[in-house]
Amino acid sequence: MTKPKVLISDALSPAAVQIFRDRGVEVDFQPNLGKDKDKLAEIIGNYDGLAIRSATKATAKILEKAARLKVIGRAGIGVDNVEIPAATAKGIIVMNTPFGNSITTAEHAITLMLALAREIPQADASTQAGKWEKNRFMGVEITGKVLGVVGCGNIGSIVADRALGLRMKVIAFDPFLSPERAKDIGVEKVDLDDLLRRADFITLHTPLTEKTKNIIDAAAIAKMKKGVRLINCARRRSRRRAGGGRCAQRQAHCRRRLRRLR
Ligand SMILES: O=C(O)[C@H](O)COP(=O)(O)O
């Protein structure tokens, strides 16, 4: 019997490669291939499985050439880099690993929130520049402040849990959050407008879908409190520098100067 053949086209740990091999799978490990879509299209027809992270874009055009492909495994959460309808039309199963990095991401969001509250990046830059501007970086306390969690699934609910431990009041917008679950987690379920109006800090934990794309636009920002702090450890849409197309990118970035955007 011939071994199934899997292509790993993004950077995965050598341990992952070994797991495949231990199970009798022939692995082709090409960690930089995700960036080369022409080469990927050229060779994808040779594989039964494709293991990716976010760099590989499994577009309809690529999948067209994937004559024997049966499964795409996403080592990570977001599957916005896979054209699911095109995969489904070809009978290709798409799987992700939704819990692998939930705690990491939630802790990252809390870290950014505290960094924003205490103005750590600015204070660090100032100190590195040889200054000691103690009075310039007063910061704010987070105790008693309102945290608005947009998307209260795996990651959002861990963020809520940690924020409650830091004595914040947590409100959440998530159409899939049942009142029972909200009560269990200890958050108040609200609609998006309510969250935008009330929150002192807002943290985003939605997948990138047609419904969540640009969820925080100029109109949403206009509804926020003055001086609100916004944390995004989810996705961002941005223009590709060449070609003018749009691509989804993972970005953990935070913004404090929302006033300027109003
Ligand atoms: O969706 C995810 O799991 C995260 O954004 C991490 O993705 P990456 O590390 O593969 O870019």
Write the layout of secondary structure elements.
Layout: E1 5-8, H1 14-22, E2 26-29, H2 37-43, E3 49-52, H3 60-64, E4 71-74, H4 84-89, E5 93-96, H5 102-118, H6 120-128, E6 146-150, H7 154-165, E7 169-173, H8 179-185, E8 188-189, H9 192-198, E9 201-204, H10 218-223, E10 229-232, E11 235-239, E12 246-250, E13 253-255
Parallel strand pairs: 1-2, 1-3, 3-4, 4-5, 6-7, 6-9, 7-8, 9-10
Antiparallel strand pairs: 10-13, 11-12
Bound molecules: 3-phosphoglyceric acid.
Question: What can you see in these coordinates?
Answer:
The chain is of the alpha/beta class and 262 residues long. It has ten helices and 13 strands. It has helices at 14-22, 37-43, 60-64, 84-89, 102-118, 120-128, 154-165, 179-185, 192-198, 218-223, and strands spanning 5-8, 26-29, 49-52, 71-74, 93-96, 146-150, 169-173, 188-189, 201-204, 229-232, 235-239, 246-250, 253-255. The strands form three sheets. A six-stranded mixed beta sheet has the order 8-7-6-9-10-13, with helices on both faces. It has a five-stranded parallel beta sheet with strand order 2-1-3-4-5. It has a two-stranded antiparallel ribbon with strand order 11-12. A hairpin with a 6-residue loop joins strand 11 and strand 12 (246-250). Helix 5 (102-118) packs across helix 7 (154-165). The chain is elongated, with a radius of gyration of 21 Å. The structure holds 3-phosphoglyceric acid. The site of 3-phosphoglyceric acid (3PG) has 7 residues, from loops.
